[in-house]
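Q: Can someone sanity-check these two? First one:
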Amino acid sequence: MFAVRWIRALGRTSKGVAEHAGQLGLLAWSVMRTTVGLRVSFRDILVQIYVMGVQSIPIVIVTAVLAGIVTAQQGGYQFTGTIPLYVMGSIVTESMVLELGPVMTAIVLVGRVGARITAELGTMQVSEQIDAYHSVGRDPVALLATPRVIAGVIVVPLLVGIAIIVGIVAGQLSAQMTLGLGHDSFYYGARLFWHSWDLVYALLKSIVFGLVIPIVAIHMGFRTGGGAAGVGKSTTASVMFMTLTILIIDALFPPLLLQ
C-alpha cells in the first residue's frame, strides 16, 4: 500500500509539474507574440517600470548595504592575520557582482513585485475581470502580462547594478571602519582579481531573473480560483515557486557560464 500511495503521489506531482511547464511555455509564447507584434501599450510599460523599478529602489539599497557590510565583516573575521587584507576588496566585489547582487535583489523583488502581481491578477481572475476582457475582444496577455514582463526585463538589471555598486561601497566603508583597510588597498584588491566576464555574467543572470519573476507571477495569477482564499493560496504558492526557480537557476549558472 505504501508503494502504491508513493507512486500515486509521484504521478500527481509529475502531472502538476507538466501542467505548470506547459502553461508557462504557452504564456511565454503569447508574451513574445504580442511583443513582436507591437500590441502592447508603451504607457503601460512605463507604469510598470515605475511600480516595479522606481518604487523598489529603497528596499534594494537597504538589502545591498546590509549584504556588503556583512560580507566585509565575515571576511574580516576569517582572514585577519592569515591573508593580506586587500584581498577583502576582491571578496566583497566578486561576491556582490557574481552572487549577492543578483540573487538578493531577485529575492527581494519576489516579495515586493512578484507577490503583488499574483495578488492583483488573481483578484481580477476570481472577480471575472479577465473574463470581461475576453468578452469584449481584448487580449489579457497584451494588456496585463506583456507590460509587466517587459518592465521586469528592463528594471531588474538596473536594480542589480544599483545593488552591486551600493554593496561594494558599503563593504568598503565597513572594511575601513572595522579593519582599518584603506579604500586604495580595498580597490586594489578588487582590481587584482577582477574579470570583465563577471559583469556580463551578472547582467545575464539579472535578465533571466527579470524574465522569470513576472512570468511565474502572472502564470500563478491567471490560475487563481476560489475567491479570496484562492488569491491567498496562489500568492503563497507563487512566492515559493519564484524563490525555488531563482535558486535553481542560480545553481545552474556557474557550471554553464563560469567554467
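And here is the second, same format, sequence then C-alpha cells:
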Amino acid sequence: MDKHVIEERREKVVKYPKRGRQSRVRAHVRKGGVLLLISMVFICAADGCVGRTAGEEQGADGSLQGVSGYGDEASEPAAQITDTDEIPFVNILEADSAELTITWDGMTANNLSEIETIEAEIATAVDAFSAEGYSTGFLLYDLNSGGGVSYHADETYYSASTIKGPYVAWLVQAHPETADTLYGTIENTLQWSSNEDYERLITSYGYTEFNSWADGLGCQNIAITDEWYTSVNARDFAVLWSSMYDYFLSETCNTAVRDLYSGTLSSAIYETLGGQYIVYSKAGWIGEGLGTYYNVQNDAGIVMKGEDPYVLVVLSDAYGQMDLLDHLVAVLDMAHTSLTEY
C-alpha cells in the first residue's frame, strides 16, 4: 500500500474504547428488531432511583409531571425528539449485542425505515445459519466512526486457527527479529494455517506475554492455554484486530509480514471481498461434529475499504459451510456501504 495512503488513514482512525467503560446510562429502544440506543436521565428520590426523560418533574405525590403543565411558574416546554434529531451514538464495541444491533453516528428517526431494510437483509443471512442448525456471532466495526453492526458478539466459540493471526501480530511487535529469522515459519502459519509452524512459534516464545498483551487491551477472556488455542467472542476479537490495524498502519510495521495476511487459506472475508479491497484476515476451522466445542468455521480481519476501513469478525459452528459465511460477509459489507452514506 502506498505510504501516503497509509499516512492519510492513520490520521482518520478512531481509537477503540477500553472495555467496560460507559459515559452515560442508556436505555435501548427496539424498532423493527434493531436496538437503537437512546439516552435517559436518572434522578434519585428518597425511596430509590426513578428514571425520567428530559423535561419531566416529580410532583408532590411522586408522579412525573411535564414541566409546562403544573404550577404558577411555567418552565421551558418538554424537549421532544423530532425526525431530524440525531439518535445518541454508542460505539459498537460498547453496545449491547443480545440482539442484532446497528449503531451509527448521525442517524435520525428519518433513517429508521432504511435501517429496518438493512436489518432485514442481515437477519435473512443469520436465519440461513439457523435453518441448517448452526449458530453465529459477529461484529463489524467501522474504524473511522466507531459504528457498526453486531449480533451475539459476546457468544463464545473455540478459536481454532483464527488465533494465529493476532498471535503473529503480537510476536513481530514484541520480538521484531522474528520477522526476519522466522519469516518462513510465519508465512506458513498465516498463509496455510500450518499447525506445525504455529507449534514452532509458540513453543519458542510461549503465550504468557501474548495473554498479557490481550489483557492490556481489555480482552481478559482471550487467554491461550497449554493447548495453544483459546475461546473467543466477536467483541474481544474485534478489539485485537483493531490494535492490529494500528500496527499495520504504523511506521514500525513490518510490511512483509503484514502482506502475509492477504489471501490466507479458507478466509470467507478474503474470498468474498478480496477482489474489491485489500483484505488482511485469518480464518480458523475444525470439525468434530455439530454440537461439540471443537466444531467451528471462523474468520476475522480488516477490510481496507477506501476511506472507510473496518474490522470484521465472524464466528460460527458451521464447519465447512463456507457458502453461509460468504453470504453473511457480503451482506454485512453492503450494510456497511449503506451506513457510510449517512
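A (reply): Looked at the second one. The domain at 3-19+95-339 is CATH 3.40.710.10 (Beta-lactamase). DSSP finds eleven helices and 14 strands in the chain.
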